[in-house]
Description:
- The protein has helices at residues 3-26, 34-59, 64-97, 102-126.
- By secondary structure, the protein is mainly alpha-helical.
- The chain has one domain (3-113).
- It is flat.
- The termini are far apart.
Amino acid sequence: MTSVALTILYAAEPFLMVxxxxxxxxxxxxxxFPALFSYVSLRLGSSVVLYLLLQVHRVIAISEKTAYxxxxxxxxxxxxxxxxxxxxxxxxxxxxxxxxxxGLKWLGTISFRWLHAFRLLPQGLLxxxxxxxxxxxFWPWSLR
Length: 144
């Protein structure tokens, strides 16, 4: 893609998010779909904040390295928050589609939560620091 096309797509996202928020507010569907409204609001806020962080070194006397560090941590924080909210949007849509079937709704909701709990367990364990491999039982004393 050309640079012009990428710039147009990058600039179009906030405008489309504003249109989605206006549509949700005018139809009063934000009460029915609070997770979807939260996701669209989060995407709008994150895209505006991230754009401002890319331009902050031109306005405030800070280094580009510091501005990039702010951008980096803000990007990943909003990415994780977006992933959590997407999970809630999917669960919200599932519950809405299963309203006519209360037994299936309950079973699906429970299995959905357990599935994600088991999916997040290995990822959480990977975040723990690694322990050095012990070569012998007397490893701490073998350093003397």
